Amino acid sequence: MTMKNMPKNRLSTQRGFSLIELVVVMGMMAVLSAITVPSVLRSMSVYRLNDAATSMQNIVEVARYNAIRYNTQLNLRQAVVGGRTVFYVDVAKSGAYVNTDPAYFVPVNVQLAPAGAPAAGSTGLASTAALGGGCIGFNSRGTVDYSTCGGGVQSVWFISMGLTTGGGGFRAVTVTPMGQAKSWIAQAGAWSRM
After folding, report:
1. Nearest by Cα to 62 from 25, 33, 102
2. Tens digit of pLDDT per residue, the chain (194 long)?
3. Domains of the chain, with CATH numbers?
């Protein structure tokens, strides 16, 4: 066999990455990660709070619609079950949470009525009051019944929330005397509609 007919050594014709090239690429990846990770964490905080506000608004609407559907007076109540806060529609009218009641368990990383949240009155709605006693009553027409919850004083119920880590700002849900639930957002100043 002559030298011309011998197969060429494949290792000598293949080329790889040098150590310097690999270090440069890894450095670029580290810089990009350092830039994007805080943004992703902020986005997750905002998502968690938005989800909590939406879920809270939904359970209020479930209570209202069940009162209309069953043509009766129903209450949305707040309780602590297994160390977690739960808002539940008291369909059985027992005054206590039953696992068949429609319910929303507040996530452990969400705090109700957090310190630093804007005042309820900054929504611009008249007679806004924080949800006292953890109860909102709805009559068969779907309007708020203040005789069982609220001591007969008509007001706009206000439930505010924020993350226990403090990120993402604040969210709130209001319930008007007509039974309309609305979601709100605030960073530090006044509340604005979501």
Report:
1. 102
2. 555 555 555 555 567 788 898 899 999 998 888 888 877 877 888 888 999 999 999 999 999 999 999 999 999 999 999 999 999 999 989 989 998 999 999 999 999 999 888 988 888 888 888 887 789 999 999 999 998 887 788 889 999 999 988 878 899 999 999 999 999 999 878 898 98
3. 18-193 (3.55.40.10)
